[in-house]
Give the backbone structure.
Amino acid sequence: MAKLTKILMMGFLFLIMVCCLSNTINAGNRETFSPIERLFFDESKEALQQFGYKIFEDAAGFVAPTDIAVEPDYLLGSGDEVVISLWGLFEKEYRETIDRDGNIFLPKLGKITLGRRTFSQAKKDLKERFDHYYKNIRISITLGKIRTIKIFIVGEVKRPGSYRMSALSNLFHGLYLAGGPTKMGSLRNIRVMRGRRKETSFDLYPFLVSGDAGEDFHLSSGDTIFVPPIGPVAAICGNVKRPAIYELKGKTSLKDLIDIAGGFLPSAEISRIQIERIENFQKKVLFDVELSARISQRLADILLKDSDLVKVFSIEKRIYNRISLEGMVKHPGDYQLKPSMRLREILTPEELLPEASLSKAEIVRLKENGLTEIIGFSPEKLFKGEKQENIILKRWDRVIIRSAWEQVSNVDLKGEVKFPGQYTIRRGEKCSSLIERAGGYTSEAFLPGAVFTRESVKEKERRDLEEFIQRQGTILEKRKKGATDEEKRLIAEGETLLEELTKKVPLGRIVFHLGPLKKFKGSPDDLILKDGDTLDIPKPLAAVSILGEVNNPGAICYQEGKGLNYYLEKAGGFSKHADKKYLYVIRPDGTATAKPPLIGRGDAIIVPQMIKTRIGKVVKDIIQMIYQVSVGISSF
């Protein structure tokens, strides 16, 4: 029993250790933002970083050197070791350390003061002294061990305190010893204080941006490096070479910020730049910078403020002078559209694969109204030189070469079957066979709500709708002449409905009744499948839709056994323009019925608009027709 207890305790302690280690790893991997980075992340949704602080992450990169030749202007001090080598008539080497009074002592030469003198001055003085005392002797003067100095680093740094370092150290070495400035510390106003009054300010941006180190400022013992809080900042995101958050100094223009960020990318849309600004600690404002021909001057005229966010947008990604060649060709892909380019320039007999159809191909063209147009042609006739086949190409045309072999047909089966997905079908295969191959229905399949769509039907509906819109628009335009004020108002309403219809995309739905497989198989609704067909079997629908002339159109939760009046009351009743006489209901399977006794799950109740009879009958009938088509399409 005691052994079992011991094993359980060991297991419990191991589990605690694993949990603690997991939490530590997760905490280490979690990306942290400074308050400034968090502010701009919330605004731009880009993880912009504060510029310049990463350079201090690898402290080994700026360790002060101890074994290099010193510069001629190096200032000697207490602790430096002077190495004097003599050769000629005799050889001798002296290694003397400068004492706290700045002196060294040499035999025969006595005390020599070197402290607070530059290395070049010290070499000159020592040579003169040795030349005066010794004849025909050569001399070499170098430094051996370099003294250490003590400095203080305070303010917004990661590890403030006092540090001992080589006298060859400069400002960067000191900052690296302290871990560098925090992200709330300034990189553009770092101060070095020497004694009580002497203070020097340093800006690290010239070095970080262009590598210009400026004056190589060496530290002295007793110096204090102070990093004050960061000054005003501005962020720039989007299509610039170095998106980041930058600290501002003095009057900074938009041009200055873009230059610091490396300039625009070639994909930048420079005609419009956007600035988000916090105004008077109260509200945010947004304004667009519209750039004229004098872009540089305009950018230089705009001064930035603290917490400004500059957004540089991208040019439109769509390629305008592009056409594509697809299908049974050797080199499918995009091609340049040249002026007055014809089909023969892109399609040659050598370009076709052996299985390409020579009798029929097509160009898919995007029209100005957003609809597509299919233009058929014969490659065989094209290659024989028939001019009518050599069609002038337009931008975004897709030249599609079909296969001469039997086409592989695919259909999509979605929703509540056991194995939904895309299926390759056999010629003449029916819908019931496809459902069987997919494992049959799931237990949640709502068969009355099944939606069957076909590409050819969709294309016909699109053409019919396009013709309907054009025809009714022409009729309405003619009816404007001599129309009364009330008729003109109604005609304007009809034109608005027609404009909305142009934005609607027909579904291509075939109304059919899906049932249990045993009854469905072989029934008139068991359709023969074609390439591109889609069958979507939903889960039970939870709502009933009410569209048209009710006070609050929308969706209402289905209640079993409830009739038409229940849902009309839930929708706030009829509006004053409702035509109660012609109310009808569209079932989930796509069939329509007039005022059924009960409303089913997923039904759509359509309440048409009443057109007053005192206006012209022709206008009334046209508007009524447009309205019915618009509401009918919306119900699907």
User: Anything to note?
Assistant: Residues 3-30 have pLDDT under 50 and may be disordered. DSSP finds 14 helices and 30 strands in the chain. The longest strand covers residues 268-279.
